[in-house]
Protein 1
Amino acid sequence: MSPPYIGYPSFLRLPRATPLGVLNPDFWHENGPKMTFSEAEWVIFGAPLDMAVTNRAGAREGPRSIRNASMNFYDGNHPFFGPREIRAIDGGDIEIVPGDLKESLRMIKENVDVLTKMTGAKPILIGGEHTVTIASLRALRHSKTKPPVGLIHFDAHCDLWRGALGHGTVFHHAIQEDLIDPRRMIQVGLRSPYPSYVDNFRDLNGIEVISMATCDINTIHCIAEHIRKVVQDQPCYLSIDVDVLDPAFAPGTGTPEAGGFSTRELMSILRYLYQTKCPNIVGMDIVEVSPAYDQSEITSLAAAQILYDFLHGTAKEPS
Ligand SMILES: [Mn+2]
């Protein structure tokens, strides 16, 4: 097996596919069994978009950096979950049109759309900034006219501002567009200032919040159980803004906020969710890694490890 620094990295050295638009079932791979889109349970797309951020840009470099960081742990069984059948492929980066947010989001949606229409695979987006989530949610909602999904949202920010679509307004728009069921939506780790109308909006829509202050006085298991209770066992989407982590653990992001989770705390909550086979996740993303602000790749490593955990935690044990 090649050492990590050799070659052109796909995430975890998973089989690679051409980005869609052209859904090509034949693709080459370096290691492991050949797998087609229709055999895959998860398809990972890079969504290198950062044109609708409110502060520092740079998350367009996130997908490449996270793939690179994932080279640290493709060479054995998961240390916690053990051997698992990873049915995932790396679908490459989705084409972005610089300066055209609408068209770029349309292209992300189309890729996820084609995927879910033609196969049983589920999407994973590597951001990119948080606006990319709405494209995935649009595809999940509209491709098979499925009901709105629940949402597990880890973030320092509420992302419920009003105004033009961007990374601070994305879930306001997602609710207005009926893409998510707000009564099965929970926001975890919040600690950034927000306008008072957000409280009214949450009350009106029945959105749950576990602020970081509440996380401070609760155990990992309490937090995870609360999440399970809100999303139940119905389909839900998992969206992780890497800025939910403390800047000590994730400095490489556009809008850092002090006082966040350690990487280990976040991974513990997520592992608890995977271990309890709940919730029923139909799509996920990890967003807002901005490598230019990173130190020693720690943010990209955290994001890669979180996704590595996700793939193993949700995979079947080998029969
Ligand atoms: Mn955020």
Protein 2
Amino acid sequence: MEALTNRLKPVDRHKMSLWERIYLPAVFKGMVITLRHFFKRKATISYPEQVRPFSPVFRGLQILNRDEEGRENCTACGLCALACPAEAITMECAERKPGEEHLYREEKYAAKYEINMLRCIFCGLCEEACPKDAVYLTETFAPSNYNRNGFIYGKEDLLIPDPKTDPEGFAKARGSRINNPQGHGNER
Ligand code: SF4
Ligand code: SF4
């Protein structure tokens, strides 16, 4: 029968000599190879203590953005959900009431906003589609989970800290992609 690859290697069944039967030369040969690798530059890093730099186009977990006054940017227009090829985004819209101007920037806001991370392919189209500077993909990985429900990220998971009460958390959550205008395409 014709081989599928050219990697076929017939087994050598010749009678072993005394030199081969004591195995010491083979052991030393193996140790020399190990020692050679000892002094080579390591290909691995000690993650999570050390982290490799991300590519400038890396796209990770989404966040829902706030403006400098801490108001939610999202107006629940639905464009991100419409643009999403994986149908991963769902939301429910609500109307801003008088006295809530300090909470929501627009007259409408997302009372519920969910992203199904099991569906998301991190394409970034939601970020591109958003006219309100509200949804961004950051440099954070989606953490692993044993439960499928844990991958449904609600508004409470996505919304970044209020800059007025937690300026450090706000800057950290936005990360370098949002703070660096070259890292993305929808600065407004
Ligand atoms: S990154 Fe792509 S797949 Fe994920 S929610 Fe946004 S549009 Fe959908
Ligand atoms: S995140 Fe942006 S595109 Fe999506 S509903 Fe909110 S304002 Fe609209």
